[in-house]
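Final report, results section. Input specification for complex C-07:
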Amino acid sequence: MDEFVNLKETELRLGLPGTDNVSEEIERVSCNKRALQGDTENETESSMMKMETCPPRKAQIVGWPPVRSSRKNIIQTKKNESDSEGGRGVYVKVSMDGAPYLRKIDLSCYKGYKELLKALEIMFNFSVGEYFEREGYKGSDFVPTYEDKDGDWMLIGDVPWEMFVCTCKRLRIMKGSEAKGLGCGV
Amino acid sequence: MDRAIKLQLSTSEMNYFPDEVIEHIFDFIPSHRDRNSISLVSKSWHKIERYSRHQVFIGNCYAISPERLIRRFPCLRSLTLKGKPHFADFNLVPHEWGGFLHPWIDALSKARVGLEELRLKRMVVSDESLELLSRSFVGFKSLVLVSCDGFTTDGLASIAANCRHLRELDLQENEIDDHRGQWLNCFPDSSTTLVSLNFACLKGETNLSALERLVARSPNLKSLKVNRAVPLDALTRLMSCAPQLVDLGVGCYENEAEPESFEKLMAAIKKCTLLRSLSGFSEVAPVCLTAFYPICENLTSLNLSYAAEIQGNHLIEFVQFCKRLQLLWILDSIGDKGLEIVASSCKELQELRVFPSDPHDEEDNNTAVTEIGLVAISAGCPKLHSILYFCKQMTNAALITVAKNCPNFIRFRLCILEPNKPDHITSQSLDEGFGAIVQACKGLRRLSVSGLLTDKVFLYIGMYAEQLEMLSIAFAGDTDKGMLYVLNGCKKLRKLEIRDSPFGNAALLADVGKYETMRSLWMSSCEVTLGGCKRLARNAPWLNVEIINENENGRMERNEEDEREKVDRLYLYRTVVGTRKDAPPCVTIL
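Structure output:
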């Protein structure tokens, strides 16, 4: 039913067990119950767990409801803003190609891209190069990217900061040849 | 059509008139369909019509080639082109599927066609194309881009700089890479011809002083829609130098306005006595809507569907004074109560769209609209003919009442957010409700159905929807019979789009000739197989049968082409120019 769910299931990532998307999604929904740690890899089992621990959440079907992304984003922006007013940080996972485990950061702690990138550089001990509007990041093998609400992988720094905070689901610092596709002169 | 009929009656007599006279008579017939009919009357009429046709509408850019278009209509001035299928709006079509503008501009440019207007929908437009466009057509006046992508503000800069007679630049819901450059500065100081400027979809910063200077030197400017980056003070200045505005799209101003700025804005708005249409308001503090109270009685068109920040009660307060509204696009946060107020206040209402503020039903809010709001609108607004309504629940009884109240619907699109949801009171399917709609609304041209539906609803549609041209189906039906009822019954059907419904090869292949009478058919997540599609392609060489594959890498992943394999996405359309050459790897044309 949900194409993206299956894709993640087969994705080769280095991450601690029990920190898959299922639990992250449960955290996102207004639900005080914590996801069960040690959720199995099995997708159907974890979706059953979801139903037991949280109020029923509609599975997201691709392209449904038939509303343009531009409309969905407006609503998401509003929700995220009200979420953060309630004191909840905007926590997203950060992965780096080659690193043994992922980290989590709170985007609402940063005022802009400069601060965020600096924090990432310190956290993962790398440097990100210089950002150019057209060519992307130059001067480093590492390229900071993020996954947005549509499931697309985007270069960090293109959109206004507030919009980035609202639409960012997770971060990934790409390295090497894969990064070249995104980072340099598309 | 009357004029065309009278003309037909005396063709032979008419032929004694010189061609110029006949051409002059044809000038009174702008409708594409009428002109298509005229050109079929006789060879001489075909010829006269060809050379006098200035406006051409191409609903599917792959149905014809640019060269053939130019050969037939060399005096073309205005061209409308549509590219990707409708479901591309909902991310069901890969980005690179097609619909490229460049070959068209290239051909039109080489043939030195005197192009003045270009309207595009769901096409891929590049900066190179925009540059070529701006340099090739001296008299170019109007560019309207709807749901297009592939270009940046650099392309807009070329248009601004080179189109000396530009009257209209209308960008609606496009994906534009905003280089935050100075494209507005590229309008030369001598440029004073602008009538319509819409850049609401641009996401980056705007050069405010360039914009103000442009607006100040455009006395004919009637329509201005700015983007988020234009704050309140700037808006006030803009409106002050353009009190002749008829159509305004407001940017975003998040913080509550200071009283003095607010006063100034209200004063500027009061002077805009010609203002009839209002839109924008994304991320706007509710109080800013109140600045428009002085002119709200004049409004005929109001689009607050992006105003997620304005709560229901503020919306209601405003809308209830808009007594002359003909078009209203709003979020469901207005609620049933709000719609009841609209129904009692807006007696001129013709088109209503209610969008979901919670599309994935993540919140337990009770303020969304239900069947109650829909019934109220149908009862209160006698002129209503088009509706798009997103809601969480519906009943047959409500739909039957709506049908009785509003037999004049031309467009009826109902989207119940949860797939397969039955009548929430009787738990039955919604077949009877939609059946009542198609039976009562004899002029219905567009229909979208949702909720729990069996084959029966399609029986009704096939039986009664005689004028239906476009039908959208999702999560509906039981067997192939459903689709067959529609294909056999709806004689005027042009576009059929189906997703997640159990229709298969038997329905697809029953009447291959039907597809020649239609523009296109879309089927995704249905039961059609590769074998069925191959057979269709063999039997109908005048169709392009496209299979869009699930993984973007195309068929390379599959070891064998298993004919029993279900096809993820099928898109077929009639064409006179055969297989297109620009399909990406993820698309297989059979």
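Chain A touches chain B at residues 3, 29-30, 55, 57-58, 60-72, 74-75, 77-79, 133-134, 150, 159-160, 163 (CB under 8 Å). The helical segments of chain A are 3-10, 21-28, 43-53, 69-85, 113-124, 161-167, 176-183. This concludes the modelling results for the funded period.
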